[in-house]
Amino acid sequence: xxxxxDDDIRRCNSYSCRVSVTAVPESYTIDQLAAVTGVPSRTIxxxxxxxVLPRPPRQGRISLYGPGHVDRLRLIGELQDxxxxxxxxxxxxxxxxxxxxxxxWLGLGDRLRQPxxxxxxxxxxxxxxxxxxxxxxxxxxxxxxxTGVLVRQGDGAGTVYLxxxxxxxxxxxxxxxxxxxxxxxxxxxxxxxxxxxxxxxxVVHLLLDRAGDGFGHExxxxxxxxxxxxxxxTGGEATRxxxxxEVERAxxxxxxxGALAGAxxxxxxx
Length: 270
Hints:
By secondary structure, the chain is mostly helical. The protein has a domain of 108 residues: Orthogonal Bundle (Multidrug-efflux Transporter Regulator, Chain: A, Domain 2).
């Protein structure tokens, strides 16, 4: 028995399918399954090889797929829409009840995707930028553009400026007022971002490795979400304290080594 694709299918691409079936037959050949779901036969075979789609029972020499395979292909498409790779999908759907496990994961994923700061991108008009830089030396805007703190978008009357991080823009201008020019602060920010990216990646992997045993009271979505929320609240402050301690240590070493006095001597001799 085969349902007409025109009646029962909303077509989709190979990697993101949405299936709406009003009358579901008991079984499909692979070509019928491809027609019903809009997922090509070769992709269905790939999903089986990767372990995200169960292999179907066989009737003689023919493999017969069922409604569960239709549902699984829909689920794979939804998870890929959220950015999951096949290996992650395989791990997710291998834990029993698809609906329960996936619903928990999606809820946890949505909570973890919440911004960790209120520093969101801001679009500034040319007049707003001019007002913001009033009283500053010529070339300040060019330097902000060169260092990427601001990005010009559009041309002519449609020109606007994107501040990906308004907080970083504020910090850059405040440091400039204190005598740390924009080029130096941008170079320092690049060092911090590079080193912090590596450190944060290591910390996140540490938390993942200890999920349910040192991070979260148990390995449920709710327990991990609670642990991450606690980390969100205190992690920024802990990072600030560690940074302040390390700056204090490094500056102290400069003073003790005489390097700071040497810098002052070079400035006088110049």
